[in-house]
Write a structure and sequence with these properties.
This protein is mainly beta. It has helices at residues 9-43, 47-51, 316-319; strands spanning 74-76, 83-88, 92-97, 101-106, 111-117, 124-129, 133-138, 143-148, 154-158, 163-168, 172-177, 182-187, 193-199, 205-210, 215-219, 224-228, 245-247, 253-258, 263-267, 276-281, 288-296, 304-306, 310-314, 321-325, 335-339, 348-350, 355-358, 364-366. The protein folds into 2 domains: 9-44; 60-366, Methylamine Dehydrogenase, Chain H.
Length: 367
């Protein structure tokens, strides 16, 4: 503990004078730093502001990231399990493998839980977080597993045939039943089915997203996207959208993500083998606003997400992770770049700072 020794009055006056001079010097130095900082702000422009209208999203500064600097991603093992679905729970990253295991990582890559075996017969495909639990769809088991992120207690609920991707509307978990061409809502609180499943108005349904009012479903085999009035907690789907079936003009629309204005669709290309990219659909009419390729040339695309500024797509073996301008940017939109993670990227998640991509047998990458 610091102590003060007794000083003579003369010494006190001398020290006071010295402290006064030091404060003056610090004040001058601080003023100089402010001038320098102001100059730097005038001369250095963040990469987002170079391309976007700065008035589009004034809060974007909270999640600006220097993605171009991330040339060497960090890769974390899942002990040889074939990682596929991935989700962020607000604090940690959850990953499931196609051979039926689940694991939890801190955002600095520390393994916190697992890999732990899921119930027998599990083949995880989709994953989502409801604020308390991680939900994992099990393609071959006609089931969805709900895991409490704190207690790790697991509950299994019955679904339709071949449950695929999953989305949360604030109260319900919406699950696409690929084998039934339906999408159904399950109460997040207890897993009970809410009403009857809705037809997807197409075949081979995979992707699902909620825009605050409507449920959107990607029908991979029909090459279209259907919009469903789901009477969700965000409000009724407007008549300009409800019941629409949108021809995407691309082969195998696969996954969906909403950027707060428009809906984005990742497409896989003929037979799911590329070339792949994204389609932008109007959030008010469903009309196709643009098609942007260049993501993958083989193996198609995986899931996609919105990070607050950009659309990120899992680009398969030839695409890595692909970054596109969202509707927050002034046109022209399009591919910004590809980011290699040393293997095939299956699905992506965003933790508020980094993009995470699952890499099959290698594990999960952060970049």
């Amino acid at each position: 503990m610091k102590t003060q020794s007794s000083r003579t009055n003369a010494n006190v006056v001398a020290h006071q004078s010295t402290r006064s001079e030091s404060r003056n010097r610090l004040s001058r130095s601080f003023a100089a730093l402010l001038v320098l900082a102001a100059g730097l702000l005038l001369t250095v422009t963040p990469s987002f502001a170079q391309n976007a209208n700065p008035n589009d999203n004034p809060n974007q500064i909270a999640i600006l990231r220097w993605y171009h600097a991330n040339t060497a991603p960090s890769i974390y093992s899942m002990s040889g399990h074939n990682s596929s679905p991935v989700a962020f729970d607000g604090e940690n990253i959850w990953v499931a493998s196609t051979d039926g295991y689940v694991a939890e990582y801190s955002t600095d890559g520390k393994l916190l839980y697992g890999p732990t075996a899921l119930p027998s017969g599990s083949y995880p495909v989709g994953m989502a977080f409801d604020g308390t639990n991680i939900w994992i769809t099990e393609f071959y088991s006609k089931a969805v597993d709900r895991i409490n992120v704190n207690t790790k207690a697991s509950t299994r609920f019955t679904t339709g045939n071949n449950p695929y991707f999953i989305a949360f509307d604030g109260a319900n978990m919406w699950i696409v039943n690929n084998g039934d061409a339906t999408v159904a809502a399950y109460k997040a609180s207890n897993g009970t089915l809410v009403g009857a499943p809705h037809g997807t108005m197409g075949t081979g349904a995979t992707g699902v997203a909620f825009d605050g009012q409507c449920i959107w479903v990607a029908n991979t085999n029909s090459n279209n996207v259907a919009i469903i009035d789901a009477n969700s907690t965000g409000g009724h789907c407007p008549s300009t959208l409800a019941g629409k079936v949108i021809a995407t003009g691309v082969s195998q629309p696969f996954a969906l993500a909403y950027d707060g204005k428009n809906m984005w669709v990742a497409y896989r290309g003929p037979s799911g083998s590329g070339p792949g990219g994204v389609v932008e659909l109007s959030g008010t009419s469903g009309a196709v606003l643009g098609t942007f390729g260049g993501c993958s040339s083989t193996n198609g695309t995986g899931t996609l997400l919105f990070d607050g500024a950009y659309i990120w797509v899992a680009g398969g073996a030839s695409g890595g992770a692909c970054k596109y301008k969202s509707s927050l940017f002034a046109p022209p939109l399009g591919l910004v770049g590809k980011y290699s993670v040393g293997g095939s990227v299956n699905q992506v998640a965003f933790d508020g700072i980094n993009i995470w991509g699952t890499l099959g047998g290698t594990g999960v990458a952060k970049f």
